[in-house]
Amino acid sequence: MYLIVGLGNPEPEYSRTRHNMGFDVINEIAKRQEIELSRTKFNGIYGSGIVEEEKVILLKPQTFMNLSGQCIKTFMDFYKIPIENVLVIYDDMDVEIGSIKLRKKGGPGTHNGAKSVVHELVSEDFPRIRVGIGKPVDEYDAIDYVIGQVEEETYEKLKVGIDKAADAVEEFLKNGIDNAMNKFN
User: Fold this and answer.
1) Which of 22, 37, 83, 124 has its CA 20 to 30 A from that of 103?
2) In 7-151, at which residue ranges do the beta strands (DSSP E only) sit?
């Protein structure tokens, strides 16, 4: 069993913001695989199904970004999912819009959601997909940049990364993190 987690803030207030790229990827996978995200448990919205012949849980923690790890840890413990089968997806300002970066493990960088996951799991050894949102231009406030609503034209550019990340999740489930990294990095 795999736990595929998108980080974000509760919708609809934060939908279509750069900080909710993880949620947007989960929504895209759910749409492609016809998995209904309608159940709630442990402060998360989730759905389950079969993707690439693997049983998966698609999860959107509802704890707000900075406490995402609490929800993830509870799901892992309840379903006895090993850390290598937990794929975490989140936005990253250090990755260009429309691009993604996959890692097998590593530090959280400056991302508070990733910091929460590392803290709660007491490990950096989980695969992740970072979806590029680019950096703010000029003196644009970083917080406003990540949680502010985006215009349709900008969202279309972000959607390229969302689609790539959904493709990468399918590759991860089919052929593992190493093959997914080789194909998408």
Assistant:
1) 37
2) 39-41, 44-51, 54-61, 86-92, 100-103, 128-132
